[in-house]
Amino acid sequence: MTRRAAYEAQQKRRANMIAGVSTMIVLALVIVLVPLAPGWEAVRASFFNGEVFVRVFPDLLRAFMLDVAIFAWSVPMIFALGLAIALARGNANPALFPLRIFGAVYVDLFRGIPVVLLVYLVGFGIPGLGLPRPWNSPYIWGTVALVLTYSAYVAEVLRSGIESIHASQRNAAICLGLSERDTMRYVILPQAIRRVVPANMNMLVALQKDVALLSFIGPVEILRQAGIFKSLLANFTPYVAAAVIFLCVTVPATRYADYLLNKDRDARS
Amino acid sequence: MKTILTAAVLSAVATGAFAADHCAAGKTLTDGTLTIATGNPAYYPWVLNDAPEAGEGFEAAVAYALAKEMGFGADQVTWVRTSFDEAIQPGVKNFDLNMQQYSITEERDKVVDFSAPYYTAPQAVLTTQAIVDGGATGTMESLKGLKWGVVASTTALPVVMEQIEPDASPLVYDDNTNVTAALQAGQIDAALFDLPTALYLSAVVVEGGAILGQFDPAAAENPDQFGMLMPEGSALKACVDEALAAMTDSGKLAEIEAQWLQEATGVPLIQ
Amino acid sequence: MPDPRLSLRGVTKSFDDVQVLRGIDMDIAPGEMVCLIGASGSGKSTLLRCMNGLEPVDDGEVLLDGVDIAEPGFDLGPIRQRIGIVFQSFNLFPHMTAYDNVALAPRRVLGEEARERIEALFARFGLADHMRKYPDQLSGGQQQRVAVIRALAMRPQTMLLDEITSALDPELVGEVLDVLRRLRDDGMTMVLATHEMSFAREVADRVVFMDQGVVAEEGTPERIFSDPQRARTQQFLRSVAR
Questions:
Q1: What ipTM score was computed for the predicted complex, to two decimals?
Q2: Using a CB-CB distance cutoff of 8 angstroms, which residues of chain A are in contact with residue C89?
Q3: pLDDT tens for residues A134-149?
Q4: What's the predicted TM-score (pTM) here?
Q5: Domains, chain B, ranges and CATH?
Q6: A190 φ, ψ to 5°?
């Protein structure tokens, strides 16, 4: 081992030890001090009730499958529409100017409206116009609300990705005789989409949580199922159980997004 | 003039002394005051105009009658607003009594205290005239084929699931407003409420609203009974129950019910 | 002299308030190799970009086989297949293999799956083993050679080369210059902006010295390098000789 390597190894050992000891101290304080609080027993019974947890967990997991399904069918629509809006906004053709204006208004509007409001507005409002079943289903219109909001965000992310591709790439393609359309499709978009994968991953994590907002207009997904149990059992543990299920999905997804982000940063530096 | 004033002061002192003697003395959040919680907003016909202080509406009237029975003057009643969640969360509560059509259930009773029931609520089926015209009737068979909606924090969901056992799984909402919106949007065919609420929604809120019928509370295994909710282990419970018993015996409770919930009769029973 | 392949007549070009080209007249004969020399900012790159319409000119004519391609509104699409351009920074598409970089435009524009022809080009320029690699797996010199192949795959009659060795490490310059020698031997019409004076002297049919947006002096390499007439030319050649 070189002198330098030995020194660095020693520094690293030291740092690890300090990190370990400080973590232990904080953990010990939490474990010792929190139960000393006078209301701890009540809080534990109300939020961390093992019996309730075990009883509701299977039903919550089943309800979560609905969240997963809504998520799964929303995502392709979100990306298709987001891409269309991003392309509409980037269009330079004067004949398509109305499309560009539409894109800009769309993005401002649907990014500006709280998702909950949109879920109510679209989920109750449009079926209220008198659509027959099954076209008035809260699943359909709730999904539409999610797609409207998230495609606006995705459009902006994609647009920033498109704009981040250096003009020289476009020039090179144009000079080879490629049409504007082919240039976008084969040269600009593949690079732009790759570049914004991490940002879109974060978007998907947010979407996975916002799917629960559909419960406001009827569907019994995990959050609503937890609410039903809460009301039935007068206990908040079902929400904790729901949170655990959410975390099992969102934490790995978030970590993966960070990993991609770091990889991308390393690749570009 | 002076005599009248003295008399008034004396009577006020006397009232205070009466309260101090009553079993509720020293057991309320604030001495000499009974703090009662209602919903936000509070709904007709339980509280009229979202103003419980006026004593109008069934629960508001019961509250003031109960307070009087327990020795509190009308000016000694204070109102606060809570959600269902606030009522059951651990920690210190900001009310002595919480009164917003809470159904008494075994599970809930483990976490909070309930008074003796002050109302036995028949469950009624709210729908629209369009559904009735479409052939829906007040029979179990017909009810099974309907798309149901209920409020999450009520006991309506177990009733729908266990008694009606509908073909399609019910949709569940946060509050009455959302249920009626879904009914109006044609996303659900019918909703289950306690009868007074159903009557009100049908008459005032839902355009073309209709009541398909009520479940006979006498026939139900566990009739839906409303109780006043108190913090677990409340010292006040015995006094409240005693006062309610007195109101039942004296016919006061029935009188209030007749005054504010009179329309309830005449709704056909579900077959 | 036969009819020129490319003619510029009074070409001017400004970026904002800065006039970069101040009236350029130039004729390039078929098969001719013209080297543009001059200080950075003298307008060499802009001139090349005006020759294939990548930069629209403000005024003047750019005649390709007698047709004015600088006319506003002229459809440049078909023209660009006839004029290839290679840039200083390669501008390969990083998400495609070397082969796909080259094959994309023939496939989309010419509508042909020019597989054998493209493989032959790779082989000819010594890159047969690198076709399936991505640009970031290639050296600068290899990347630039791929860029040249990419332009050649469209079968252009004229090649514009914009300081294509300037971004390369010195030891990699030679392999790219070799490619140009071979193209010259093929009889390709070429306009080359360069700082490689000895290369220009060796291969050019004609050297054009540009200064402040005008053609300051032109002639055979022999005359320009051995006997420059203008003071600015002399000054420039002295500065690069150092």
A1: 0.89
A2: 168
A3: 888 999 999 999 999 9
A4: 0.80
A5: 2-112+232-264 (3.40.190.10), 123-219 (3.40.190.10)
A6: -60, -35
